[in-house]
Amino acid sequence: GTPDTRTPTGAATGVPPSAKGQQGAYLTTAQGARLRDTDHSLKAGPRGPVLLQDHHLREKITHFDHERIPERVVHARGAGAHGVFTGYGSAEGVTKAGFLAKGKETPVFVRFSTVLGSRGSADTVRDTRGFATKFYTDEGTFDLVANNIPVFFIQDAIKFPDIIHAGKPHPDREIPQAQSAHDTFWDFVSLHTEAQHHTMWNMSDRAVPRSYRMMEGFGVHTFRLVNAAGETVLVKFHWKPKLGVHSLTWEEAQMLGGTDPDFHRRDLYDAIEAGAFPEWELGIQVFPDTPEETFNGIDLLDPTKIVPEELAPVQPVGRLVLNRTPTNFFAEVEQVAFHPGHLPPGIDVTNDPLLQGRLFSYVDTQLTRLGGPNFAQIPINRPHAPVNDMLRDGFHQHAVHAGVAPYRPNSLDGGNPFPAGVDDGAFVDVPVTVAEAPKVRANPVSFDDHFSQARLFWLSMSPVEKEHIIRAYTFELGKCYHQAIRERQLQCLANIDPVLCAEVATGLGLSAPQPTVPLADVAPSPALSQVGGEWPAD
Ligand code: HEM
C-alpha cells in the first residue's frame, strides 16, 4: 500500500513518542532552552518593576491564559478509559466488519458522560448518560456513540437545539445545573409529546446509575449491516454490563452529590486501578431489511421506539474490557472526538432523521471545540489503521505531507490509488433505493404514536420502580413555577396510564385529567425492569 505520509501514529502504545510532554532531565522553555529559575520574574532590582523582556515569564503566563478550550455543547462532563474489544465471530453471517471476527482483538477508548451539566457538575444527577466507544479497527475507526437510554427525546435532528436549549439552565438565572426540574424542560416535553418516552426513562431509576460499570448502552438508531455477499440486515446495538444494571436511590444520589460529586468518575478510575476491570458484551437485535423498515409494527426509523427483547433477542457479538485509566485527562478524555459517521466496512447508517442530523453535527462542533480541521491528528483521535488522505494544511497541522499532487488520479506522485481489486476492504455505501417522493418537511405517520411505548415502559416496572417513578415526577414537576406546565404534563401522564397520572396529581395537589387518546394495548416487557419478575396486579 501507499505509505502513511503523516507523523507516526504510535498506535500500539496509545501515547506516541512525539506527544510526550516531558523529555530530558532539565526544565526548559517551550523552545528547549534550559532554565535555572522558574519562581522569580526578571525585575529591575529585587524591589523593582517586572521587565517586559522576561521571555520565560511571558511564555509561562501566556500559555496558561490559553489553557481552556470550550467544553462540549452537550455531554461536557465525562470520564474515560482504555480497553480491548474481542469479537465472538457470531456476527460474521450478517456483517463483514473485521473487528467482529472470532477472537479478533481491537483497542478501544470509552468516554462516559452526563448530557446537560457543565464540565464541573456533579456525577450523580438525574440525566441521560453517554456511553461512547472508539474502536481503533484495522479497517478504520468505528465510533459507537451510544447512550444508557435506548430512545431519544425527538425524532428529527432539527429539534436538537430546541430540546437542549429547553434542558440547559434557564438563560436568565443559569439554574438549574444538570437537572431536569425546571419550567423550560417540562414545557418542551409536554408540548413535543414524542419526548414522553425518553422522559419516563429519565424519571426512572435508569437515570441515576450506581456506576458507569453497571449501565447498559444503546446505539438508539437502527443501523444497517452488510455481509461479504452484499446481503443486508437492520440492527440495534446494545451494551450489556457484566455486573448487571444497578441504580442509586434518589436519596443516595443527593447525598453523594454533596459528599462526592466525582462519584462515578472516581468509581471507574478506582475499579480499573484495583484490577476490577469493567466488562460489557456487545449485542445486536437483528431485523430483516424490508422496504417498510418496520418490525412487528414498530417503525425502525423512529428513535423514540424500542423493539422489546422478547420480540428480538439481543445476540452477543463480542466483549469489551476496560483495563487502563487515562494518563492525562485533557489529552484523552477532553480531546477525544466521536462521530456516528465513523463506520468500518460492514456497518452503514439508515434514514433515521435523527441519525442523519447527527452525521452533520459532531464534526461541525468539533471544528470549534478542537480548534480547526486537523483534530483527527490529536493522539487520542488518530486511527490505528494507516491514513492516506488528501486533506492538507489548516490550523494545527502536524503532518509533513510528501509529494506535490494531492489529487487522484495524478501522473506525478505515483499513479492511481484505485487499481483493480485494491479496494476490496473499502467502505462501500449500501446502494439502498431512495423512494421517489415529493420533497416535504414532514414525518412518517407512524411517528405520531407518542404514548404507547411510555406505557409499555411503565407497565414493565416492578412496584418499587413504579414508586420511584411517581416520586420523581412529583418532585421534578413540583419545582416548576408555572401551573399550566404542570397541568399539561399531567395530561401527558393521563395518556400513558391513569394510575401514574392519579398518583402524581395527588402528590402535586391537582386533579387528574382524563386521557385524550385511547390507552395503548401493550404487554409488559420483562427486560425493561431492573428488578424483574414481579408484575403488578393492575
Ligand atoms: C455528544 C449532537 C443525539 C450521544 C454530542 C455533541 C454534539 C451532539 C454536538 C458534542 C460533541 C463534541 O463536542 O465532541 C447531537 C445531535 C443529536 C444527538 C445533533 C440529535 C439530533 C444523540 C443521541 C445519542 C448521542 C441519540 C445516543 C445514541 C452522544 C454522546 C456524546 C454526544 C455519547 C458524547 C461524546 C463524548 O463522550 O465525547 N452530541 N447528539 N447523541 N452525543 Fe449527541
TrEMBL record:
Swiss-Prot/TrEMBL keywords: Heme, Hydrogen peroxide, Iron, Metal-binding, Oxidoreductase, Peroxidase
Domain of life (superkingdom): Bacteria
Cofactor(s) required, per the database record: heme
A single GO BP: hydrogen peroxide catabolic process
Domain Catalase core: 28-416
Catalytic residue positions: 75, 147
GO molecular function, one term: metal ion binding
Top-tier EC class: oxidoreductase
Residues binding heme, per UniProt: 72, 111, 160, 358, 362, 369
EC number(s) given by UniProt: 1.11.1.6
Reaction(s) this enzyme catalyzes, per UniProt: 2 H2O2 = O2 + 2 H2O
Function as written in the Swiss-Prot or TrEMBL entry: Decomposes hydrogen peroxide into water and oxygen; serves to protect cells from the toxic effects of hydrogen peroxide.
Membership in a protein family: Belongs to the catalase family. HPII subfamily.
Protein name: Catalase
Full-length numbering of the shown residues: 57 to 594 of 753
